[in-house]
Amino acid sequence: MATVEDIAVSAAINILTAIAFLLAFAVLRIQPVNDRVYHSKWYISGDRRSTRARSGNVVGKFVNLNFWTYLTFLNWIPQALRMSQAEIIKHAGLDSAVYLRIYILGLKIFGPWTILAPLILIPVNLSGNIIRNLTNAKEIISNEIDSLSISNIEDGSQRFWVHISLAYLLSVWTCLMLYHEYSKVAFIRLHFLASQDRRVEQFSVLVTNVPSISSHSISESVEHFFKMNHSDHYLSHQVVYNANKFSKLAKKRDRHQNWLDYYERKFEKTNRRPYTQKGFLGICGKRVDAIDYYKDIIGDLEKKMVSERQRILKDSKSIIPAAFVTFDSRWGASVCAQTQQSKNPTRWLTDWAPEPRDVYWENLSISLVSHGLRRVVISVLVFLLVFFYMIPISIVQSLANLEGLEKVAPFLQPVIDLKFIKSFLQGFIPGLALKIFLFILPTVLMWMSKFEGYTSLSLLERRTARKYYYFMLVNVFLGSIVTGTVLEQLYSFIHQPPTQIPKTIGLSIPMKATFFITYIMVDGWAGIASEILRLRSLIIYQFKNMFIVKTERDRENAMHPGSIGLHETLPTLQLYFLLGLVYAIVTPVLLPFVIVFFAFAYLVYRHQIINVYDQEYESAGAFWPHVHCRIIYSLLISQLILLGILSTKKAANSTPVLTPLPFLTLLFHMYCKKRFEPAFRKYPLEEAVEKDAMEHASEPNLNLRAFLADAYLHPIFRSFQDVESAETRVDKSQSESHVVALPSSPRHELNLASPPQHVYHYEMEPSSLYYNPYH
Amino acid sequence: MATVEDIAVSAAINILTAIAFLLAFAVLRIQPVNDRVYHSKWYISGDRRSTRARSGNVVGKFVNLNFWTYLTFLNWIPQALRMSQAEIIKHAGLDSAVYLRIYILGLKIFGPWTILAPLILIPVNLSGNIIRNLTNAKEIISNEIDSLSISNIEDGSQRFWVHISLAYLLSVWTCLMLYHEYSKVAFIRLHFLASQDRRVEQFSVLVTNVPSISSHSISESVEHFFKMNHSDHYLSHQVVYNANKFSKLAKKRDRHQNWLDYYERKFEKTNRRPYTQKGFLGICGKRVDAIDYYKDIIGDLEKKMVSERQRILKDSKSIIPAAFVTFDSRWGASVCAQTQQSKNPTRWLTDWAPEPRDVYWENLSISLVSHGLRRVVISVLVFLLVFFYMIPISIVQSLANLEGLEKVAPFLQPVIDLKFIKSFLQGFIPGLALKIFLFILPTVLMWMSKFEGYTSLSLLERRTARKYYYFMLVNVFLGSIVTGTVLEQLYSFIHQPPTQIPKTIGLSIPMKATFFITYIMVDGWAGIASEILRLRSLIIYQFKNMFIVKTERDRENAMHPGSIGLHETLPTLQLYFLLGLVYAIVTPVLLPFVIVFFAFAYLVYRHQIINVYDQEYESAGAFWPHVHCRIIYSLLISQLILLGILSTKKAANSTPVLTPLPFLTLLFHMYCKKRFEPAFRKYPLEEAVEKDAMEHASEPNLNLRAFLADAYLHPIFRSFQDVESAETRVDKSQSESHVVALPSSPRHELNLASPPQHVYHYEMEPSSLYYNPYH
């Protein structure tokens, strides 16, 4: 077990790491050459243009020579705090604003508690002396942190009444904050939706599982069905094409385009024709002129793309059995989305259309049965992943348990016995090992969600977040508590009566506090500091900048900041709520670490949302019910754990008092669900009628059909349609960037819609093609 | 433990009881005096009139003198079987027809199994010899039945593969039958709904939780809200009055009316003015003329009722915040029922209107929050009831365990040791004790459901059925298995390692087969025979007939057959599915008893539905999803129990093969839910549009407003409105029944709507007042 010195060493390491990251950030941020990395959102919104043009000096284009700015390197913090919530909503969307509120919620819940704990809980816990006795008896190796926790109280002590009252107080306080926040978020959401301009998704419904009738095309079926069943309000519909092959071609084309750009740039610099080899990876096969070679390949691919596009348009088989149906009023769309259409409930399924950016086109054709089967398969896989991923983690952690390591590798003993190394290993390794394991996971889980067949990016992110949360709960939280104990005490578990097991678990939870403190410091302090540095994006951007960027527009495309990644950040965040709530009563010394995380992460993400991340879609805070729900689960878990601890502490007269608490919490949850969740899932007719009437009064001659005509056009069409209008924009941007473009080359025509650096995202968010950062 | 002889004795007793009941029924049924009891449905439908008028003989009016009919006393069976399903639907409604299908489903599931078991399972089980060994070792007292069960197979035997394959076969077969039945019932339901005539509930929506605005009345609010949000389809609405006080007065009046009738009849017979006393129960206080006294009281009450009625109509506070809103098309109603209306999801809640007969008026005013709290309170109460009702049952059962009884009351030993008494006690008492406990329960559970606040009778019955099922599952099934064992082996449970517990439970399930066989015979054989006899109804009817019936109409009212009582019969029925499925693999000897029950009960209930019960409402088989769901649960329970048994049997190589089965069953359930349940919960727009169009084509000038005008008028109004039209009907019936009525008395005017014998049901189904058996 780690001692207070171990924690101090770990804290020092992590704080120094965080400071190093922050300093590096402060220096890198003000270099003009990195400006696009740290202010990408402003470039995308068009409020910031290349700073290189402004500075006359050649060096000044790349390095910041104004030394005053180095002295004010921390001014990103007041800058980040200056923007109001309304401005953030306008600048980065409601999702981002609601996301930031989660951190504030964390501070609100745990803030008062961090003040209360030293006043009430710690004196009470210190007044016990069980840990001292145990340490003397050498029964369990323990430390100073444990003597501040509930384990220090003697069995059956009257002092447990303090913990029980505080457990009630904590639950009431948490629920109060949650209720307040839920009603606030619901209000903001409704207000946001009501004050929004006219948006296509308000008039549209996504219909899936369209049955195929041999005599009719999908398009005819859809038109006939909705003309029949929504005769008064049906306006038009847009079919969906299966463009997966086209997007593969585009991807391949863009990979080759990057090589072409690279060789052209090389040629410009060296003025010598570059050569390459035709074979594998350009290192074997016939030697050819690189520029001509890639131009040929790209030409071929583009021809294929044109014919593929024509095939898609002509072949009725490339129309998938789903469509976006638009209505002449919000009322009509709202009605269609909420009702059952067909006698066969597995056909003609209607639901709200996601906003065009949010559609995940690849999954629209998946039928209900297939969707169900896929969910089952993925559930099994997630179960396996969640429960068997534990094994490698527990091995690493048992190695980091130095007593175990010494046994496994006795030759390491002299090294391990060095005090500093020992502290380092015990304080740093367990958290780091876990973090590495977690790094590749979100991608795998996102792939699983995509396979399941959800039809919008927001839903995909929410579902992935759920899987990730289960994973974190079992592996990071339970795994750290139980597996560690199991490896230590497996032998005694088997050979002792079953009543001993809850006692051991109850004891191990407070004892794991030190582990979670180091985890919070590694993941929550140093990790968040590395978030603001954006080292990976920086390297990729500068690499592209060096080799393939030729025009200013290429540079724009080289920096795609991505979105905030709710599927990854939400579960991580929710784990801190869990840790805070569990240890708020058991070992309140952990709370300051959680508070520092919430405050620091709030600052960092506020900065990132304002300056870096680009919103992929707007779900108007649709993820809030999940956040609420999981904080409630955390609260329930904390209550059950406390019950477990108390029951092992033989507090027989006080424990039953705690039993109603989980039930009351569940009741509160059910009430909130009934009261607020419909605001996130449904669109009340009252609201629809109001907005329809307002619009009708203000714009009586509105041509809604024209407004909705191309709303849900498949990206494949948009990429061709936009050519003309985009061309003029390109010309305009050329006049500013003074770079020769090739307006007439066929490559350009297509590339407009799918710039090379975007292609990586093509499969994920093809819709971003026409919402990309061009303007 | 009961031996085969005990079972034989029990079987003999129960078969004799059943035959006695059947003989009594056969004789009583053909007596003209009882005709109304055994053919009430025909009187209600108007196809049968009083037989007394036909027979000239005075004795013949009361006793059947035609001896031929005594010889053909079993002809109710072919009569019951003659009617086709379509005729039953027409005669007794779809609910009744679907209810009968459950018995057929039972026969379909267990029929092939009863043939398969003697061929495969019993030889396999007999080939083991563990029971013989155990009996020799006196470790557990067992019997011949057990040697036919799975307990007879040695641990780790390869013979368990037979059981596992058969478990798969049983599950597949059951699911196949369930799927087939679900799709059939869904089809029948949709067909029934489509072929129905125009019905008011198709155009109506029940809106609850209407917010009260001080400046508007409820009626104005409703009109304004729906005119605003469903402008194209809103037609009208009907407010609901709080008439609870009125119904109390009517109840009181009718109680006194019964006394008045009694004394008037007495006066007619004896020609002497009867006297009564004014005080408590007519046995103390001042002596008065009974007829005058009751006439006075009734006069007073009727004056009060008139003024109460006026108060209700005038006072806006007597309008409750709920209303029936009617639309100009099925489409409009369907849309309104399926969508969220208000921004605040706890207000303006809309749902399908139950058909007028089905409305439970008393609960319409309960708000959402109150409804939620009531459900919580009742959940806790049901939990307590389910889990602590066990205690008295287990005491009775442990008494019936004769070894225990001898210890408690050693003086009974000589009596108990008589072989016949012993067999009787062991075979009969445990089942009977349980049955008595269960007798009062449905009423309590129905009261609980009413308190919860459901707004229709059909929903009340379904909810009560659910509660009752939980009760049966825990107390009858688990209670009989576990409690019995616990009382026997409590001591050893505490003092043995935990791995022993599942073994003991696994062993006790096959051993309880004999108990359940006697239970089936008492409850399922003799119980069903007593159902056809209707002894309670017979006595009540003849009692009324003797003392208070004056006119033929009074006689009609004296026999209210009631409905089939789904809340009571469904869970009972489902218990047999559970028993059949659990023991189909474990102890297949139990199956023939289950089969006999299903076949016999099918005959009896077919007869009762055709001849006796009157349908209270038509839910078009809305209870089927529950039936399906609970059979699936039974299947799951049976699979888990088999898993438990096998794991204790050390069949380590074969048990894992069984593990996927529960998951596959759950998958099947989820699929069925998705595929069929919407047909029972929603009304697809496609269907609505079709019917609207058909109706529009056939009746272009239909005045829908007039058709819907009084559809959901509160019974209190109907009782006054009907007076004139009913008056004429009464005159007509007088000419047939040759009885002097009092057409002008104020009593009659009110009584028309709430005849005395119906008043008992007033609180339960006030709507039956205008659907009562008058025509």
Automatic annotation (TrEMBL), chains A, B:
Its annotated compartments are: Membrane
- Which controlled-vocabulary keywords does the entry list? Ion channel, Ion transport, Membrane, Transmembrane, Transmembrane helix, Transport
Q: Which residues cross the membrane?
A: 7-28, 98-122, 376-400, 420-447, 468-487, 575-605, 631-648
GO terms for cellular component: plasma membrane
Q: Which Pfam families match?
A: PHM7_cyt, RSN1_7TM, RSN1_TM
Q: How does it sit in the membrane?
A: Multi-pass membrane protein
Q: Does the UniProt entry include the keyword Membrane?
A: yes
Q: Does the keyword Transport apply?
A: yes
All copies of the CSC1/OSCA1-like cytosolic domain together span: 202-363
Q: Residues in domain CSC1/OSCA1-like 7TM region? A: 374-645
Lineage, top-rank taxon, reads Eukaryota
Record GO terms (molecular function): calcium-activated cation channel activity
* Cross-referenced PANTHER family: PROBABLE MEMBRANE PROTEIN DUF221-RELATED, TO DEHYDRATION PROTEIN, PUTATIVE, EXPRESSED-RELATED
Q: What family name appears in the similarity comment? A: Belongs to the CSC1 (TC 1.A.17) family.
The name on file for this protein is Hyperosmolality-induced [Ca2+]i increase 1 (Osca1)
Q: What is the lineage of its organism?
A: Eukaryota, Viridiplantae, Streptophyta, Embryophyta, Tracheophyta
